[in-house]
Every structure is written in C-alpha cells, then in structure tokens.
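cron nightly-structures :: item 1 of 1
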Amino acid sequence: MRFFARALALLAGLLSGFAAAAPAPEERPLIFGILPIGGPSESLEAWRPMLDDMERSLHRHVRPLSVSTYEGLAQALAEDRIDLAFVSGKLALDAVARDRMRVFAQLTRGDGSRGYYSVLLVEKNSPIRGVDDIFRQPGHWRYARGEALSVSGYVVPETQLFAGRGLDSDTFFASVAVDNHQNNALAVANREADLATNNTADLERFAQRFPEQYARLRILWKSSLIPHAVVIMRTDLPPELRQRIAAFFTGYAKGKNGAAELARLKLIHDISGFAPAGNDTLVPFADIAYTLERRRALGAQWVNSAALDARLKKLDDDHRALVKRLAISSP
C-alpha cells in the first residue's frame, strides 16, 4: 500500500509538472499579419521593434506573419490564422464583411495627411505625356500593376481609369506584369515596363531606397484621395485582451517613450501613430468596389436591358446593405 501511495504521488507530481509546462490556452502567441512592403523579410524587419514593444506591453508573445503577396495574407485571414493585422482597405473590407474581424485603429502620418494617392508611373523621357496617349494605342504598351487586392495598385486605377472607358487593363495592354510596388517602379525605371501603378506613400519609401532609379521616374496620373491603411483584429478575442491591444496601438508613440517609439514606427513607413477607428472607416473602400463593379456591368454585354437592370439593382442593394452594416458595427 505504501508503494502504491508513493507511485500515485509520483504520478501526480509528473502530471502537475506537465500541466505547469504546457501553456494555458490564453497564453498562445498572438499572430500579427503584415501587409507586404517590398519583400516578406523587409516587412518583418521593419515591424519587429514595435512588435517587441507590444509583447512587453501585453505580456504575451506576438508572432508576425509576413507574406509576399496580398493573396497570401487574404488566405491567412480567411482561414482564421491571424489574430490582428495591418492591412489595406480592400483586405480589411473582405475580412470585416465575413464578420471575423473589426477595425480598431488607422495609421496616422506626421504630415497630418488623411490618406494617400494611387499613381501611374512612366519613365522620365517616355513618349507617354498624358493619359490620353495610353488609350490611343491599344495593345501597344507594357503595363505593370499590383495584385487584384491592392487598392492603389489595382482597384483604384482600374476604377478611375479603365472601367469608366469600358476597358479591362488585363486585356488592353500588350503585356501585363503583376508584382509589388517596389518591383513595378524598378521595372519602369529600368525600361522593362512602359507604365506601372504605385502610390505616393510607397513612392516616398522607394525614393529613399533607390534614389537613382527614382530620378528616372515621372508621375503621369494621380487618383482621388485613398484613406490610410487600418489595423483589424478578431472579434472572438476576449474583450479584455481586445481593449489592451487597442490601447497599445492608439497610445503608441504618445507616452513617456514617445520619441523612441516614433523612431521605431519610422522603420515601417512614415507613420506617426495610430488613431482609434471603426468599421465605418471602410465605407470609402466599399464605395470604390461598388463603383468598379457598376462600371464593369455598364460596359458588359447583356441579353437585354432587363438583365442589366437586375444586375445594377443587386449591386445597389448589396452596397446599401454593406454600408449599413459597417456603420452599425462601429463603436
């Protein structure tokens, strides 16, 4: 009996040791998705100092997920592999529309700007002097654009330049290459592409990293204002944890360590901090997506006018419903 009692005590001690070694469910690392800026390693290096501060503030490991494409980040969001993420408006809109995520912060810049602009780049001495020069020669130019989920690299130029003319950029040009903003700008500077999409924020970063190539570029066209990127997080995280995450972001670079934290933000981009935000921040992106689909519908061929009217009505109804949801789900 004494031997049996000692064995039970030993087993209990072992089990207790295992329980102590195994992390509690609430202690699992938070997965932070990073919008691609250049390459995955570059994005990871830029964000790591701030994420280290976040770990110390939350007393919880933060594991970054840096991917090379918007599509890779979208897939990770759709598969619930990300707890919070820094994303563009289109990615945020898709995640929020599925009720998995909520916007809680939006980046701010030191210059006080409310957003940025999509641009078309050409080589400084290009014969393309204006937008009309592009459309005079279908099937002639080499085009470099961003991924379909990139607001400034695809959605906005497609909406404001091509769809309104009844055109699709993927079939209009002699060739189309899809890559990130940095590589697309390099392609134009090196005359490997005739024109490329980009945006004013990434172009500032490009000018710092590649001043010689930047000097070879010229902005041909600039879009209307696009709101800044946002930070989203899962709606099923514990409320207390969501509050602490939001407080960390919106208070970052504003406290006693503000100068050092601001320097860490500058490694990411020209970011001065994060302002509180809600899902209604995404309404402009919902408007952009709606405008693109409507222009595409108007430029398509339909069996009769009733079919077109039905499509337009559905687009109108879906858009109104989405905007209402975004407003209601905001704090």
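cron nightly-structures :: done
Residues 1-5, 7-25 have pLDDT under 50 and may be disordered.
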